[in-house]
């Protein structure tokens, strides 16, 4: 109480009755708030420890898992930090994968052969392939047609119609009616062959294109099968990291409850707020007297019986009260 009375008296000397008492009360309140600093420091240390615990709770900590397809594994340093991660395939899957990858070379050879075959089919244009088709079909039909002509000659001979001719009209010469019927049937066959030849030429060219497009299928099929085997072996690793992520998220949520503010009391903030309120009450909203007074203290000036020119160490026993600057 002696210090507060001294400060109040000095403030009264500077400001006069009510102002001095108010300022003395405000400064005294700040000093009392400063007595809580030790408790605030303890709370701050507790908050730091809570933050460390929250960080540990939110740390990513995967654990090894083993299932039918493989085993996940993780490495840590002496401080518990994750340094490596991986997985091991089940021996049966590893063997299957070795066989699949071992056939890649043969698959590449098959791919080369298929491509060569496709280029052969595409070596001719669709028109050239159509002509080749007609020639091939007619070559197949020729023996049959020869037998038909021989049979017709025998028929005419037996019927006595060998020299029979019938006018065909227009610019066509007279012809044996049986022979005309045979030739017309063969001509109709040739027209059908021509239609089929166009389609056959297009199909053959497209077939060659298809071979080129599918040439890599044996190779990609082998890689896909090996990749599917690898994915099965990765399942323990995926499960491990998923569990670790869930644990880290849960720890982070729990950590929010550990890191509440360590203290809510600020002596300097309370002092400044009190001074502002008192200044308005004592001097009026438009007064700058108390503001100027505080600026003098902040600049190193103190309160003496003659004014604000002396440093604060003149007040009592060399103690310094840095009002408005730093922690009280």
Please characterize this protein's 3D structure:
Strand 2 and strand 3 form a beta hairpin. It is built from ten helices and three strands; from the N terminus they run αααβββααααααα. The protein has a three-stranded antiparallel sheet. It has 328 residues and is mostly helical. It has a domain at 101-225. Helix 4 (91-102) runs antiparallel to helix 8. The chain is rod-shaped, with a radius of gyration of 53 Å.
Give the topology, please.
Layout: H1 2-15, H2 17-34, H3 37-57, E1 66-67, E2 70-76, E3 82-89, H4 91-102, H5 104-121, H6 126-159, H7 177-214, H8 217-258, H9 267-283, H10 289-298
Antiparallel strand pairs: 1-2, 2-3
Helix pairs in contact: 1-2, 2-9, 3-8, 4-8, 5-7, 5-8, 6-7
State the secondary-structure class.
Answer: mainly alpha
**Count of distinct strands:** 3
Largest sheet: 3 strands, antiparallel
**Distance from first to last alpha carbon:** 18 Å
Q: Treating each run of at least 4 consecutive H or I residues as one helix, how many helices?
A: 10
Helix content: 55-70%
Sheet-strand content, in percent, reads 5-15%
- Rg of Cα set: 53 Å
Q: State the order of secondary-structure elements, H for helix, E for strand.
A: HHHEEEHHHHHHH
Major β-sheet strand ordering: 1-2-3
| Regions with little confidence, pLDDT below 50 for 5+ residues | 262-266, 297-328
* Average pLDDT for all residues: 74
Principal-axis shape equals rod-shaped
